[in-house]
Amino acid sequence: MTLTYLGFHVLFVLPVVALLLWRRPALPRRRLRVARAGLVLMGTVAFAYTTPWDNALIERGVWFYGDGRVAARVWLAPVGEYLFFVLQTVIVGLWLYRVDFDPTPTAGDTARLPRAVGAAALLVLGAAGGWFVVAGPERLFYLGAILAWACPVIALQWAVGGAFLLRRPRPWLLGIAVPSLYLWAVDRVAIGVGVWTIADATSTGVTLFGLPVEEAVFFVVTCTLVVYGLILLEWVVVRFTGTSEDGTVDDRTDIAADD
């Protein structure tokens, strides 16, 4: 039986979304509102920011799809690809809230040195990626496109809240690592059965457990964008509203319940 892109979602993506919704955490009402807004915001930004980049890489031939694997396309990308932008965001966000994090600001959260150093390092990576795309060897094109696309945004996130993130690394490390590992595994399956193929010409040829290293990097940076975005959104809200982590309302509800 041929696995299609939409079939891939049915087998490997939607069940995870359903499981995370079933095991959704209880949150104070005020945190719940911020979490919902954050998921909607991150999903919207992921869709808008990834769409032109994704279609440009498809046009360049960085990856392509197997015969009969795509039901419909919008622009050059399959419908399943657009679904992936949003569904990955939902998976990462729900997992992060399952891990949980404390957004309460503390002294030193706005220290300039760690924010400046981290942001500068990420901008250097982004610039290196830009060079790979414009003037580097063709085999570095895909890796460069990922770095040039993602690193400036992560640099901005780090410039805002890098010192806070450094003080409490466990939640975001777990929030990034677990979804990344799962997405590596299912991406490896999809490539193995021919749902999509990474072009040899624009890839380094380096693999990680059989997965092209570019794909591994892609899922790490996209999970990072979502995790940092959700954590820092709530941290900023708490900073500017003066609401502590337990809030002014101590009744608890779940992430999918009605107010």
From TrEMBL:
GO BP terms = carotenoid biosynthetic process
Under the heading InterPro entries, the entry gives: Lycopene_cyclase_dom
A GO cellular-component term linked to this record: membrane
Any idea where this protein resides? Answer: Membrane
The UniProt transmembrane annotation reads 6-22, 34-52, 72-96, 116-134, 140-160, 172-196, 216-238
Q: How does it sit in the membrane?
A: Multi-pass membrane protein
Q: Which pathway is this protein assigned to? A: Carotenoid biosynthesis
Q: What is this protein called?
A: Lycopene cyclase domain-containing protein
Q: What is its main location?
A: membrane
What molecular function does GO assign, one term? lycopene beta cyclase activity
Domain Lycopene cyclase residue range list: 10-90, 158-228
For this UniProt record, the keywords arranged alphabetically read as follows: Carotenoid biosynthesis, Isomerase, Membrane, Transmembrane, Transmembrane helix
